[in-house]
Amino acid sequence: MLPGDVMVRFAGIGATDVSDAVGQLYTMDHGMRSLYEPAGKLIGEALTVKVPPGDNWAIYAALQQARSGSVLVVDWRGYVGGCGAGVLALVRAIRRGLAGVVIDGAWRDVAELRAIGFPVYGRAVSAFSPSKREMGEVNVPVCCGGVIVEPGDVIVGDDDGVAVVPRRHARDVADALRPSEPVASIDDYPPDEELDSDAVGEIETAYLDAYEEHTRAYQERGREE
Q1: Which residues are annotated as a binding site for Mg(2+)?
Q2: 113 and 143 share a domain?
Q3: pLDDT at res. 164
Q4: Paired sense of beta strands 137-138 and 42-50, if any
Q5: For 10, 65, 164, 166, which has the most beta carbons within 10 A of its beta carbon?
């Protein structure tokens, strides 16, 4: 497990901040979202499982290994013809401290998950419970939402999606980011003069400079013709 002080620092950090730090390579695609709204905040260390699409036997095996702070990350290859499992499969693991589920596929019992405040992220909701016949692999590198996730990687999820911090970079990323301040109105944002000096201002300035250069080049080509 990662040191507790590292995980505590991620508590106030959103998925967008993490995504900006780790890049697209470690940001799950837009189809991976909370299965209920408002999204339950998700933070924890990946407990990975690779499961044959349409079978969920290995998910039950993985849940037996869940510990406090684990996030079950399921590689189901985007299968949504059935659910990975439901709330009853999670109860014992939740009591041991399971922090959430991220599945490249579907889940069910969304109303109950919302009621108990347990975060589940995935592609869809499906009522159908699939077969339990095939073996899978637990605690191996998996692909979920287009991202390679290894056991122990940090998972951060919220209304904006899911981002992954490789375990080996977790402390550096935690040190580099700061918790976001709550925002209730437009007045909670920095004044314009401060925005001009931050990344937003830099992006706007860079765009305007590039646009002016493009315009000059276009006009010069027109005169030459």
Answers
A1: 109
A2: yes
A3: 98
A4: antiparallel
A5: 164
Return the higher-pLDDT residue of 179 and 101. Answer: 101
Binding-site residues sit at 86-89, 108-109
The letter for the amino acid at 105 is G
Could you give the CA distance from residue 102 to residue 123 in angstroms, rounded to a whole number?
9
Q: Which residues are annotated as a binding site for substrate?
A: 86-89, 108
pTM: 0.83
Residue 75's CATH number: 3.50.30.40
